Amino acid sequence: MKILKLPKDKLDYFASVVQQFGEVHAPVEQDGKYVFKRLTRWSEARLAYDRTILPPKKYFLPPKEPLLVYRPGEGYVAPAGDVQHRLVLFGVHACDVYALNILDLVFAGKYPDPYYQARRKNIAIIGIDCVPDGKCFCRSMRADFVDHGFDLFFCDIGGHYLTFVGSALGDDMVLATETLFETVSPADIDEYKRRSGAKHEAFQLDVEIRDLPEIFEMEYGSAIWDDLGAQCLSCGSCSAVCPTCYCFDMNDEAVLGSRAGTRSRNWDSCLFSTHALVAGGENFRESRSSRIKFRFYHKQRGFVAEYGRPSCVGCGRCITACPVDIDIVEVLAALRETRHAATH
Amino acid sequence: MSKPRAGIFGLTGCAGDQLVILNCEDELLDLVSLLDMRDFLMAASDNDTACDLDIALVEGAVFSRRDKERLERIRQRSAMLVAIGSCAVWGGVSAAERNGGLAGLLDETYGTQGRDYDATEAYALHQVVKVDLKITGCPIEKHEFVAAVASLLNGDPPVYPQYPVCTECKMRESNCLLIEKSIPCCGPLTVAGCGARCPALRIPCIGCRGPAADANAESARQMLAAKGVPEHDIRQRLRTFAPTGGSA
To answer: Domain spanning B5-153: which superfamily?
Structure first.
């Protein structure tokens, strides 16, 4: 990997050059929170942010996405969509890049999804490192560092950003700015290592993921799931803000007075009572407790069996978005506790 | 296929749902060309008040003996009866919980002269007659109404979200009034479909569309109580638009 450095006072200039690669979107402040948004001017960007309300998932798997337009006798065609629209997402945290790499496993693996893939190709990612807060546990989920899935990644080393060049497009961005980027010195390397180590130590939350799938397996009948079922509002906030929740529903909307219409893919959630409802009215997960259990199992156990790692990246969004304070870190800690009185 | 004969009726309510239909300006010409509109007092003076109907859309709650008789007559005439708006679907504000019941309410409003007034306890339509489809909202959403007609003309039931407003609020990435500002917001309990319009304007959801499927009122009550919202206010809020409970 090519590694360079960019003087911080040249970031504005770099951002202006990067516009030629696509419409620049970056975190902007919204009433004390942050959202990825199209910039009207560079000064709106807030690169020192905690987390955005929605993850970058919204660009790759939009909440409501028309997939095809159908018309009797004519079959169906793709709608005049925006999948070819070129964007640059500036300031994506490592956990969110990691989450996109996880979505790649689902949408660009065995069952390639052309809409997702086109967006992944046309949306450039410029990552930036971050300072963990009290809700971050990406280190525990091994998602605090990414070595792929981005075009450029900036790490603060004081007066410069150490810059990992992650793709040919990233290299084009570097070349387009000609002389802005500099060679890394031995002192820069030391500073990078020092800060990387300090960040590693700065996490306040810790989750042990070793043998977690097995513990889930054994605790399938735990009373924890009933307690969570009584607490959960089934509001869907946690799954909407989750960077790796990808469940969707398909809906056809007819044009008035015609059998033609549009088929859309819309975000769904395993917390909804309709998620496992099938024809005939049978529901595989009728109780709230079975639904919230399913969500935890899919993240921490099912995904491990399928893809070799949990799909949770430890971004902390679900903790901040739950109106009744359901906290995944606390749930995982409670599962690990030995709570059963010794009987032998 | 001949055009379905349709009627649109209002019982006790504000007529807001019928207004929404009349405000579907872009679709209105299509709607009247696709439906044989026989009986729609709010929009026409020359109505056939006796003919059989393929579809009747009824707004408002049943709040008098006259309402009940009218509704039963509409039901007899109609192959399909659709409740439109929160009053028809849930009872709405007419049925909102009040101290003193009907007698106290009549006294408070009309004095002792009101006791002979034709008023009954308020009911949602499904408590009086069989309802085939419910389109909730206060008022109904234009797009949900048009989608219903478009689907029904094709012989399909319309599909509406049954999940809470919170999900639509997240979809449009609004700040959370409950979590960030501890403002009592009924988003987690209220059925989506409105696009979380109010929270996007920093106004808390007041539950005007009625409950989402499997709404967890007890957990929400505890959550609001922990934020210092008085028990009475919580109860009042949860029972203003959907006092009859049940499911949409």
So the answer is: NADH:ubiquinone oxidoreductase-like, 20kDa subunit (3.40.50.700)
